[in-house]
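Re: the multi-chain job from yesterday

Posting the exact lines I submitted so nobody has to dig through the queue logs.
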Amino acid sequence: MALEFNVLNTTEAGGRRGRIHLPHRTVETPVFMPVGTLGTVKAVAQDVLENLGAEIILGNTYHLYLRPGHEAIRRMGGLHRFISWPRAMLTDSGGFQVFSLSALRKVTDEGVRFRSHLDGSSHFFTPEHSMDVQIALGADICMAFDECTEYPADRTRAEESLRLTLAWARRSLDHFRAHSHEVPWHEELGGKTQSLFGIVQGGMYRDLRRESVERLVEMDFDGYAIGGLSVGEPRDLTLEMIAEVLPLLPADKPRYVMGVGYPDEIEKYARMGVDMMDCVLPTRAARHGLLFTSEGRLNIKGKKYAEDQGPPDPACSCMVCQRYSRAYLRHLMHSGEALSATLNSIHNLAYYLGIMEHVRKSLHSDGGDS
Ligand SMILES: [Zn+2]
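And the result, structure tokens for all chains:
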């Protein structure tokens, strides 16, 4: 049994308040998913993530495959047990990192040969192999192996890339369905299985995006992601592609936009009907001293905060804003203290998760019949 998705309320603008029932957690949507690249949301411990209200986090297949290795994680009972995270997880397909991080890639119809960014060792990823790795990791949601089309890509290139992604989607799905019972917690959780999402590609071409949706929906995935965005294109083009694709996706399946975005963007996309989003921005920006607040962006390194006794964000009720001053956070950053990344990340995640909580409340009260 894969996921079950209930739409509780839909607004006129298309925004949906929903609930995804997954093997390890029922997730309230729209949801923001903190990114836990290497089995950790950088600088933030799992109990803190729970206290912040994170219901689902990401793991990166490429990184975990290289280190510590998916077979080691399988032997330890899967990623949930290995990192001690009892709630829901999603793994990406590894494709994005293979294309963005690794050296000497060679793409064929069969798969991608690449060299590890860690030690230069040679590896071959196919859709089938990506599924095997993701099944060993055992996240609640897996992603089909795709090629993330770069930006800019001319039409011929985008067409060829889409052809590859569609062929790989079919192979991913067939292999996933045949092996879904091999997930480490299959028996422990009463025969439940992971879910697999297809990824819409097509570059910045509306008709290719439409074709991508049509073909993926025929294959009948458990949910659908819009990929190939936030790859350097202007923001209005990101919005245009999302607006084009969303109404074409089946209303009864979760919709996930990968790798977005800034606070105003995640709110906007959620109100348009995106159910799931993930982004490294809140944690990555935090490590560079950039805080997202109700008053806008705040660079904590600024000299003007040297003796500022106020909280990072006066409107925020997170554990950092309740306890620490801007002056202290600035001092930690300037001194290169490890706690700096931790406290900044906790606030930024609280801010992102808070936006989604606010959107969920307003979607529930905006019209509809529930
Ligand atoms: Zn805060």
